[in-house]
Amino acid sequence: MAAVVDTQQLRRPVVFAVQTLTVAACYFAAGRLGLVRQLTVEGAVVTPIWPPTGVAVACLLLYGLRSWLGIAIGALLVVWSIITPGPSVIGTVVGNTLAPVCACLMLRRVGFRINLARLRDGVALVFLGALGAMLISATIGAGLLVLTGKLDPGGFWAVWLAWWVGDAMGVLLVTPVLLLALGVRARPDLGRWREALGLTLIVCVLVPVATRSTLSLLFLIYPLLIWAALRFQLVGSMLCALFASVMTTDAATGGSGPFVHLTSVEVMIKLQAFNGTMALTALLLSALIAEQRNTRRSVEHACEELMEVLDHLTAGETPQGRPPPARRPRT
């Protein structure tokens, strides 16, 4: 018995260490991926989509608040890879860690479910997890740039807005995909694989054309999102939105397609307006459809149970399948 207890006590620190290093590695990899495409706003380099925030929020929701240490280590490694070590590094790491932790706490407070099967879960992720909590990281990050003299005070709000939207887009686009991939154990519907293949081919052809054309054809992506949400719910719509966002960001940072001849501020506004509306459409529409389908299944299940009860009563039996007790004859 003592050996078993000792083994369990030794196993917990090992599991915690492995989990922390895994979260840190995933955060760092997502950060390096996000740095591939950058924009310059008021002399400061920002990323239109910051995937590590989505990774951090997903890890906290799936594995608990103890994941904060891995997030802090990953954020520290990302910051050290792009700037020289200094006092501002600690502040940036604190902001990048505190914002996802606050997002997780607020989502738990309102009873958030990681399967995103209710409309209220989608609304909570948008307004609490993304738009609300990411105010913390944006304020700390832009404020440190001003305090350290790397940014003019007049450019604070432009950089703050770009920072905030980039972090929020990471939550809106990356967190739902990771929650579905790692947290939900639902069986894929293989009955519509032909339709899924057809939708994938159309998306892979139409999205690059829409994002590279100078005719402003980005509106063509929305019917694909609606199709994916109606037929494949959150999995299809969020994968479609993520792919479209990556392609659009690549076109915007390269100054091609509908973003040609625009200033850096105009590119940021147009890109983030498109990414934001697309992510909101995919997430909220999918959550609404999932909620309606779950409600319909509940109603159908209740109707089936009611029919079984009526059948038993009609046959002269109790709902448990037993005949009613015999009455004693009167003397």
Automatic annotation (TrEMBL):
TM helices/strands, residue ranges: 14-35, 55-83, 89-110, 122-148, 160-184, 196-229
Domain MASE1: 21-293
Major localization class: membrane
Keywords annotated in UniProt: Cell membrane, Membrane, Transmembrane, Transmembrane helix
Origin species: Streptomyces doudnae
Membrane-protein topology: Multi-pass membrane protein
GO cellular component, one term: plasma membrane
Keyword Acyltransferase carried by entry: no
Location in or out of the cell: Cell membrane
Protein name: MASE1 domain-containing protein
